[in-house]
Amino acid sequence: MCSSNSDRDDCQPGRAKRQRSEEVNNENGNDEHRLKLEIRKLCISDIVEAVVLDLDDTLWRGNCEHFSGACVRTAATEIQHTMSRATLALYPEVPLVMNALSACGIPIAIASASPASETARHLLMQFGLAALVSHWEVHPGCKKEHLKAIGKGLGISALRNVLFFDDLQHNLRDVSSLGCTCYHVRKGLGTQELLSALRDHRSRSRAAASMRSW
């Protein structure tokens, strides 16, 4: 409690910091609300049964294989390895995207060829995102086989209703043969990448429906 003018002056930085934090939280809440509305609008007539995400250079900048052992979270979107001091940085809009998808009831799966399965889970847990993932396929191998396993694990019969995000073109080419809507992530997953993929999926679904009606 501030009982004098000098006390009130001393309290100003703390109050200003709390106010800025509240403004950021409100802004993030508004962003998530707007994103959920966009997702629901784009999925009204075109079912999305799952969104499948790569890890390295899609969700975060860095290679999770290099972050086994002791790591500390140094910021909301950064984790540092305590020995090497290397930093793994989550792309800023990833929490927004994953939370909005989860709130809309769209399952999220991870498909990664990394050999560091437990490390990947631990990193997502440290970022507070692991609980949003419905299925994991983190092991060396072809992404096409990862997607097949995810479809089986989630009970999805038609992989054409799955969106797949990856930073490597050859993975997208492999998976596209399953009928998935594939999106090339160039600078990390964000809201624009998600909405672009959803719009592409809607266009593909409507074109396929039109062909079937002939």
Structure report:
This protein has 214 residues and is of the alpha/beta class. The protein has helices spanning 5-42, 94-103, 117-126, 143-154, 169-176, 191-213; strands spanning 50-53, 60-61, 71-75, 78-81, 87-90, 108-112, 133-138, 162-166, 181-184. A hairpin with a 5-residue loop joins β4 (78-81) and β5. The longest helix is centred in the N-terminal third of the chain and has 38 residues, at 5-42.
Strand order of the largest sheet: 7-6-1-8-9
Overall pLDDT, averaged?
Answer: 87
Number of helices, counting only DSSP H or I runs of 4 residues or more: 6
Question: What characterizes the major β-sheet?
Answer: 5 strands, parallel
Give, in order, the helices and strands: HEEEEEHEHEHEHEH
What distinguishing features does this structure have?
single chain, 214 residues, alpha/beta, 6 helices
SSE layout:
Elements: H1 5-42, E1 50-53, E2 60-61, E3 71-75, E4 78-81, E5 87-90, H2 94-103, E6 108-112, H3 117-126, E7 133-138, H4 143-154, E8 162-166, H5 169-176, E9 181-184, H6 191-213
Report a brief summary of the structure.
This protein has 214 residues and is α/β, with parallel strands linked by helices.
